[in-house]
Amino acid sequence: MLSVAQVFIGFFLLILLMAYLIPAGLAYGYFYHSRNKSWATQKIQKNKAPTKEIMYRDIRWSLLTIFIFAVLSTVLYYLVNAGYGLLYYDIADYGWIYLPASFFIALILHDFYFYWMHRLMHHSMVFKFVHLLHHKTTSPTPWTIYAFQPPEAVVQFSIIYILVLILPLHPIVLFLFIAYNVIANVGGHCGFEFISQKNTDHWLMKYLNTVTHHDLHHANCTHNYSQYFNFLDRWYGTFRER
Ligand SMILES: [Zn+2]
Ligand SMILES: [Zn+2]
């Protein structure tokens, strides 16, 4: 079996670093340095351009978060190896229908967790100790996705522990769930609305969060606490469309 240091540095730290720098870098290059200036009209907060200082601050804190994520991933790796959790490796154990179903169950559980933990982090008693830093950037960029204080990094990563411990998941589904989370996160912080009004008004698509929803959350802090879907925001009266 690999040593702790080998697992930590050789795998998780490297993978997590790439999973931040590559998608955030590509999205930043595409939206902020593309020669295709048609994007400029779709900037959500048109009067705010991100400064280098803000982006460097977001990157520094994101790198600390990645270090914390890598430590937590290594601990989880050893827990799974010790027999904890419900990861399964033979698809036949739960059948083919359960494979995509478990992906959507994971998204719904995460959205529920994210919404309530997010509202809790906005409580005045804990906000400045846990979530203030993420809101220092009022007009986010893809570099903002992991700009967390250490307690928030632990809160955000804990969903992976919860899912692995309570929900039977095939490693492929866990990987797709994390990949989708990174893409949704980078998209939600890119600062440009790339989802068309037609899709936003669609009877079913309207329940998916758009870039504008999370951008508004950074701008005013009082609405749009959910991550993927806005059912809970609509239900609890915290939804703001534009
Ligand atoms: Zn954010
Ligand atoms: Zn917030």
Blueprint (SSEs and pairs):
Layout: H1 4-32, H2 52-81, H3 98-121, H4 127-130, H5 132-136, H6 150-166, H7 171-188, H8 197-201, H9 211-220, H10 231-235
Helix pairs in contact: 1-2, 1-7, 2-6, 3-6, 3-7
One zinc ion binds at residues 134, 140, 144, 189, 214, 218.
Q: What is the H-and-E element order?
A: HHHHHHHHHH
The chain-level mean pLDDT equals 92
Number of domains: 1
What is the helix content?
A: 55-70%
Query: Assembly state here?
Result: single chain
Shape: globular
How many beta-strand elements? 0
Distance between the termini: 52 Å
- SS strand fraction: under 5%
Structure classification? mainly alpha
Give start-end ranges of low-pLDDT stretches.
none
Number of DSSP helical runs? 10
Task: Please give the largest β-sheet.
Answer: none
Bound molecules: zinc ion
Q: Report the radius of gyration as a whole number of Å.
A: 18 Å
